[in-house]
Specification:
The protein is α+β, with helices and mostly antiparallel strands. Helix content is 24%, strand content 36%. It binds adenosine-5'-triphosphate (ATP) and magnesium ion.
């Protein structure tokens, strides 16, 4: 079921077009994560949904109700959208209880209703016993949970999270990621989440939307985005990859694909017409190394020990390839190895 529909959304600041004709459906109860390089328009996009920014063109519809268009603008406080930013923005002189209760007081809800609603979200974000604490008496993770509770207490139609965990240390961030995921599934709320942390995006999202320069480049499940990137940009942005440009099919080598200068691969994965130039993406873990046989020879240039895996830079016909293997077999810098490629994707250049 669709919770929100965005069509042809455009937004400029002066001459700079920050969101460029963006189309997106947000499903009810999903965790949709938006990733993209700094400055590509992620926060602006969330601000348009929340109503903190007006749009220049296009429409935003939430639960079948138009909230933004070129000529129409519904005020943010009337949209029932929750928003949590990177900096917690808690009131320093208000207790945890009062910080969370604040939006309900603004709405002039009755005392009993406030008490019940705040108690409920305090339980959900696991802050029971901290109601009377002040922000300076809380850890970073606890403050972030207060901010989350304050957004949840309004029972938002959509909860927007703009890098809410980036101030936390790695371990706490991971704990909070799973907590947010848990809350989302438990309450069946729709979350649109912006993060720079790929691991986080892969781990907790139902879908990932990859943005670049104000455009939506690809949207799909984490598995689809990682295993089937449509463009070179997506392949490089999500995870590590080797990009081989201008590969062509070569008749002289029995319909094989020319990978490097002297390396041809039987065309078993790819439909390409003769002479067509294509771009390939090969994930480091899809290349395997062997001592005695393989598609072609290379020389190990660098070795990075990573605990449960080893990463190599292997030079093949003057090209450096990233290779990732388990930590079982270890090759040394300068050693000759054979490479074989298990999986390869054609991407848009
Ligand atoms: N109020 C504003 N006035 C003028 N330009 C702005 C304004 N807000 C954002 N921009 C510009 O719009 C572009 C997109 O900004 P935005 O904050 O949406 O990027 P982002 O993808 O969230 O980046 P980051 O990952 O660094 O947070 C940037 O180039 C920024 O300078
Ligand atoms: Mg941002």
């Amino acid at each position: 079921m669709i919770q929100a529909t965005i069509r042809g959304l455009s937004k400029s600041y002066g001459k700079a077009m920050v969101i460029n004709s963006l189309d997106l459906d947000i499903y009810k109860g999903e965790m949709l994560t938006i990733v993209g390089p700094s400055g590509c328009g992620k926060s602006t996009f969330l601000s348009c949904i929340a109503g903190l920014e007006r749009v220049d063109d296009g429409t935003i519809t939430i639960e079948d109700e138009l909230v933004s268009s070129r000529n129409y603008f519904k005020l943010p406080e009337k949209r029932q959208i929750g928003l949590v930013f990177q900096n917690y923005a808690l009131w320093p002189h208000k207790s945890v209880f009062e910080n969370i209760a604040y939006p309900l007081r603004i709405k002039k809800e009755c005392r009993n209703s406030i008490k019940n609603k705040v108690a409920k979200v305090i339980g959900i974000v696991r802050l029971v016993g901290k109601q009377k604490f002040y922000p300076h008496e809380l850890s970073g993770g606890e403050k972030q949970r207060v901010a989350l509770a304050r957004a949840l207490v309004m029972n938002p139609k959509i909860l927007l999270l703009d890098e809410p965990l980036s101030n936390l240390d790695a371990k706490l961030r991971e704990e909070m990621q799973y907590e947010i995921k848990h809350i989302q599934k438990d309450m069946n709320i729709t979350i649109v989440h912006v993060t720079h942390d790929q691991h986080e995006a892969m781990g907790i999202s139902d879908r990932i939307a990859v943005m670049n320069k104000g455009k939506l480049i690809q949207i799909g499940t984490p598995k689809e985005i990682y295993e089937d990137p449509k463009t070179k940009f997506v392949a490089k942005f999500i995870g590590k990859t080797n990009i081989l440009c201008k590969c062509v099919k070569d008749h002289s080598q029995k319909n094989s694909l020319k990978l490097f200068k002297n390396t041809f691969m039987k065309d078993r994965w790819i439909e390409v017409s003769e002479g067509e130039k294509i771009t390939l993406s090969i994930r480091p873990e899809d290349i395997c190394l062997k001592k005695d046989k393989g598609m072609c020879k290379g020389v190990v240039k660098k070795v990075f020990y990573g605990g449960n895996k080893i990463e190599y830079i292997v030079c093949v016909e003057n090209r450096n390839l990233m290779v990732q293997t388990s930590n079982k077999k270890k090759y040394e810098v300068g050693e000759e190895v054979y490479i074989s490629i298990n999986e390869i994707k054609v991407v848009k250049a």
